[in-house]
Write a structure and sequence with these properties.
Number of strands: 27
Strand content: 15-25%
Bound molecules: adenosine-5'-triphosphate, magnesium ion
Strand order of the largest sheet: 12-25-26-27-23-24-13
Shape: elongated
Number of helices: 13
Helix content: 25-40%
């Protein structure tokens, strides 16, 4: 029977448990994931998705997918569809209905009229500079706008004319009438609506005014019956406003806002603005560049949805802002792929080996398990031939004592095949580089064991030169060379120049000709690899390295 792993406890779950058991809330637990369709999702969003959907699942509740689409200039249907795609890929289901803040534009407008009628909102006509000046600072209270005491009738009239498109952008705004002297700047008569003569990807040209986030979000939550509205810490100071708005209106329910710390990963950035800049300036190709922490990028690189969900579970939910080591995410991928990825052999930097005593027209089909720990993966047969490729790194002409791989006079095991001993080396006449290594094999060692039981320490991987297939392999490293690029004055100055290496002369075993886009493998001794979603084809294979087998980064760093 499958055992369900207990979900880690966190402070949000405790609050919810309390709210539900103390009968403070009688409705089904309802959360929401509210992306703005102005970019693609990244690993930080994955945390919010896993938290919102995961909590709903654990409490038998539901989680709405709601597009927070109140800023038409930057938003698009294309982003919206891509976001849906990513949420599905991560493994979550939001049910039949997709919600949009723009669905509530009529209701938000009606509610705004109620606020005005109750003397809780007014039309302000100061310009942006004046408004900023009057808002005050953390140490200086704000000052009332000269328009603050407009009559209700005048406010209603102006607001309706704003909506009817009578004014240019920026001429008037609708503001909540709260307290210009409040120590919380968010409560100093925040703007609720602004004029924007823009085309909206869903409502077209119907609206000339658009509601702001702080007004829209709480009302949308309430209209959807959200019980717990989980958001990131920067909204803590907005909570009084969230509660104020709902207290003024005849909303169907009052959700509870709870804040948690954003997920920040080291050696990368998750700001949408900066991600857009990296793409626009050509540092990476697009949103699905495998070096980016976007879900599209991680997916193309080869991260599995399960590894990302596991990562989000592991980092947990707290109120304390920390920078998480990207190694934690990579370990989640290693663990998942160790169990789920079939094994194969590939040589990234090939060195030709000729087996002198193996006939040119002989071949052998050697059985190799597809997974060392899981028989259900079955066995394949790999072709052996007189000429094979091994990794350049696996041969040293003048090796140190502890080198157990191939070198003149030494014997190694070719994985699943034979024991071979190096007899001589040939160099390229012009470059002096080793061009061919000659070996003799022990015909009695088929499968890799010496008949006389002699000890052979080293085992190396190989691919037949006759049957192997040429492939392009892309090796990735951290995108930035400093742990917290977002905190640097000029984050672009810290891009790691070696974040991607493309090797075009790699050789892979023929069984990989069947690899389909997004199929993942462990290439023995090298790491986990994924057939590239955009460029891979059976005739021209392209693989991305997801992660190495072990975390080599820490070591590399200390070597400097
Ligand atoms: P913007 O600065 O454009 O608002 P955003 O990253 O907040 O960017 P949204 O589309 O508004 O993007 O985010 C959707 C949801 O994901 C929000 O509830 C937000 O709090 C959450 N979220 C965004 N980034 C992170 C992060 N790094 N960690 C956890 N949650 C995040
Ligand atoms: Mg946001």
């Amino acid at each position: 029977m499958e055992k369900k792993t207990p979900v880690p406890a966190n402070f949000i779950r405790s609050i919810i448990e309390h709210d539900l058991t103390e009968q403070q809330i009688e409705r089904t637990l309802t959360t929401r994931f509210p992306p703005e369709p102005n970019g693609h999702l990244h690993i930080g969003h994955a945390k919010s998705i896993c938290l919102n959907f995961g909590t709903a699942i654990d409490f038998g509740g539901k989680c709405n997918l709601r597009f927070d689409d109140t800023n038409p200039d930057k938003e698009s249907e294309e982003f919206q569809n891509a976001i849906k795609d990513d949420v599905k890929w991560l493994g979550f289901d939001w049910g039949e209905q997709t919600f949009h803040a723009s669905d509530y534009f009529p209701q938000l407008f009606e509610y705004a009229v109620i606020l005005i009628e109750n003397g809780k909102a007014y039309v302000d006509s100061t310009n942006a500079t004046e408004m900023r000046e009057l808002r005050g600072t953390l140490t200086r209270p704000g000052t009332d706008s000269p328009y603050r005491e407009r009559t209700i009738a005048e406010n209603i009239d102006l607001f309706r004319r704003m909506a009817a498109g009578e004014f240019a952008d920026g001429v008037h705004v609708l503001r909540a009438k709260i307290d210009m002297a409040s120590p919380n700047i968010n409560m100093r008569d925040p703007v609720l609506y602004r004029i924007k003569n823009s085309h909206h990807h869903r409502t077209g040209n119907e609206w000339k005014i658009y509601p702001l986030y702080d007004y829209t979000h709480c009302v949308s939550d309430a209209l959807e019956g959200v019980t717990h509205s989980l958001c990131t810490l920067e909204f803590e100071d907005h909570r009084p406003l969230y509660e104020w708005v709902l207290a003024q209106l005849p909303v169907p329910c009052v959700p509870r806002q709870i804040e948690f710390a954003r997920l920040e990963l080291n050696y990368t950035i998750t700001s949408k603005r900066k991600l857009t800049e990296l793409i626009d300036k050509g540092y990476v190709t697009d949103w699905s560049d495998p070096r980016l922490p976007t879900l599209k990028g991680l997916r193309r690189r080869g991260f599995t949805p399960a590894s990302i969900r596991e990562f989000c579970d592991r980092v947990g939910v707290t109120k304390k802002q920390t920078l998480i080591d990207v190694g934690v995410l990579e370990n989640c991928a290693r663990e998942d792929l160790d169990a789920s990825a079939p094994r194969a052999m590939a040589v990234v930097r090939p060195l030709r080996v000729v087996i002198e005593n193996y006939s040119d027209d002989a071949t052998d089909e050697l059985p190799a398990p597809n997974h060392p720990k899981d028989d259900s993966f079955g066995t394949r047969h790999i072709q052996f031939s007189r000429e094979i490729f091994i990794e350049r790194d696996d041969f040293l002409e003048d090796p140190p004592k502890k080198f157990f791989r191939l070198s003149p006079g030494r014997e190694v095991r070719l994985r699943y095949a034979y024991l071979v001993t190096c007899t001589r080396v040939e160099h390229d006449a012009s470059t002096g580089e080793i061009s061919t290594v000659y070996c003799r094999y022990d015909p009695e060692s088929r499968g890799g064991n010496a008949p006389d039981g002699r000890k052979v320490k080293g085992t190396i991987h190989w691919v037949s030169a006759k049957f192997g297939i040429r492939a392009e392999i892309r090796l990735y490293d951290r995108l930035f060379s400093v742990p917290n690029p977002g905190a640097e004055d000029d984050y672009l100055a810290h891009i790691n120049p070696d974040s991607m290496e493309v090797v075009s002369e790699a050789v892979i075993e023929p069984s990989l000709a069947n690899a389909k886009t997004e199929n993942r493998y462990q290439f023995e001794r090298l790491g986990y690899f994924c057939a590239d979603a955009q460029n891979h084809s059976p005739n021209s294979p392209v693989f991305n390295r997801v992660v190495t087998l072990r975390d080599t980064w820490a070591k590399k760093q200390s070597r400097g």
